[in-house]
Write a structure and sequence with these properties.
Length: 285
């Protein structure tokens, strides 16, 4: 692929893929999506290497998987920063963001579509296990009061975020900031609850990722969801910081809208996880 020199208005020079190499109307020429995708791939490769590093006949060292995951996270965040900055932030500060509002929301919808595919792959794996002999081994008491409390917390966080967004659109910034901060706190409490649940399973009852096919699906899906909640909490925290600097108004709230879409999606996935992994595991077909 040929390259061209980007002499855009941000004062920096970048070697970018030639615009003419891209599909007509795509409107973007950047390496950052490739960097981001490479980092995301590192997460999955690292998870695979982690599994290959378990047991007495491990194919790789035990530290190879975690190291690859950490490198993937760093590369993913660097790529995401560069992509968001060149794609959106520069335009935001040039005051033409409202022209891109529709594109950004459609972009978030496309992203969530890929997330459906990602979680869908995990659920297909679990359903494949579920139609076999059940239970596939010893299972602990999954639907505990901790899970129910965590579910209520996550649903409540969607409610507070919805009303925070409504308050912003109505011009009530004080109420927006308060409800947004409450949503961040609820997200952190949910993550703490999931850590506690993992602690009880792993340390208290001795169930790990390699304890059987059910737990490979359980820890895989809940862990993937936990990573998404963590990213959501980071995004909400960034919104909170920007709120303190007065970046949002009833007319300028695109990032609040897109992060809200992401957070509600993560909440919906959790409810589906509870129904299938926790409640569904208690019944025999």
């Amino acid at each position: 692929m040929s390259t061209t020199e980007d002499d855009s208005t941000d004062g920096h020079s970048h070697h970018l893929p030639a615009v003419e190499d891209w599909p007509q109307g795509f409107g973007e020429a950047s390496w950052w999506p490739f960097v981001t995708a490479l980092g995301a791939a590192g997460l999955y490769v690292g998870a695979g290497l982690f599994l290959l590093g378990q047991g007495d006949d491990a194919l790789v060292g035990a530290s190879v998987g975690p190291a690859t995951i950490i490198a993937g996270v760093v590369l993913f965040l660097v790529g995401l920063y560069g992509w968001v900055y060149h794609g959106f932030v520069k335009h935001y500060w040039s005051r033409d963001a409202e022209d891109s509002t529709g594109k950004l929301r459609w972009g978030m919808l496309l992203f969530l579509g890929t997330e459906v595919a990602t979680f869908g792959a995990g659920f297909v794996y679990y359903f494949f296990i579920r139609v076999g002999p059940w239970p596939p081994g010893e299972l602990p008491d999954l639907l505990s009061s901790l899970v129910l409390a965590n579910t209520a917390i996550l649903i409540l966080s969607s409610v507070t975020l919805h009303f925070a967004h409504s308050a912003l659109r109505n011009g009530n910034r004080r109420r927006f900031a308060g409800l947004l901060g409450t949503t961040v706190l609820l997200g952190v409490v949910f993550l703490a609850g999931q850590v506690l649940e993992y602690y009880e399973f792993i340390v208290g009852e001795g169930f790990t990722l390699s304890s059987g096919i059910y737990f490979s699906a359980f820890f895989g899906l809940t862990g993937l969801h936990g990573l998404h909640v963590t990213l959501g909490v980071i995004l909400l925290a960034l919104l909170s910081v920007r709120t303190l600097y007065g970046h949002y108004s009833p007319e300028r709230h695109t990032s609040v809208s897109t992060v809200s879409m992401y957070w509600h999606f993560v909440d919906a996935v959790w409810i589906f996880l509870v129904v299938t992994l926790y409640v569904g595991a208690a019944f025999t077909l």
